[in-house]
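re: the backbone from monday

yeah here it is again, tokenized this time
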């Protein structure tokens, strides 16, 4: 992942650091050009697969929710289920990345002193540290690590989902 560090001034004149992933920026620019040329992209959630299907669903899967480029029926229960699922995946992945930064520290005491910058309040970081230090969490984490190591393969399709690969094969 490529990150560049840009510095902007916020409304009260303080310097604010913004991290920008250049690959995401490129994807957004391409999506923006596509929408300018073709209009908003209607997205339908298929009952069978519960994933977005549209002309360029490989673009949509990684971009839904980032900008207003898509037409979604938010009253549709399938759309609601899909968005709930995607948000839970983002939440889980965020917590996973926080746990990884916690584990980089030499000791739990050191980790507690160095609150991750993505956590807004020290009390939230302390609550997360408490969770990660419980025996039940540690044993589950170790069991999951062992189980993942036994997987016969990992997803190597990049941003193209298993579903999209399946559609191309048919």
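seq for it, each position gets an aa:
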């Amino acid at each position: 992942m490529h990150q560049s560090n840009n510095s902007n001034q916020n409304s009260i004149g303080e310097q604010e650091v913004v991290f920008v992933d250049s690959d995401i920026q490129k994807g957004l620019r391409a999506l923006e050009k596509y929408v300018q040329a073709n209009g908003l992209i209607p997205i339908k959630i298929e009952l069978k697969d519960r994933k977005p299907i549209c002309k360029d669903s490989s673009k949509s899967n990684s971009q839904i929710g980032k900008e207003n480029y898509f037409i979604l029926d938010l009253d549709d229960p399938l759309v609601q289920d899909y968005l709930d699922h995607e948000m839970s995946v983002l939440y889980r992945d965020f917590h996973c990345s926080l746990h990884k930064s916690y584990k980089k520290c030499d000791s739990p005491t050191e980790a507690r002193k160095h609150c991750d910058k993505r956590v807004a309040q020290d009390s939230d970081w302390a609550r997360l540290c408490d969770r990660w230090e419980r025996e039940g969490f540690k044993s589950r984490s170790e069991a999951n690590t062992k189980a993942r190591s036994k997987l016969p393969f990992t997803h190597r399709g990049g941003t193209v989902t298993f579903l999209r690969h399946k559609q191309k094969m048919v």
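The CA atoms of residues 112 and 130 lie 9 Å apart. The helical segments are 22-38, 57-63, 77-103, 108-113, 122-133, 135-149, 162-169.
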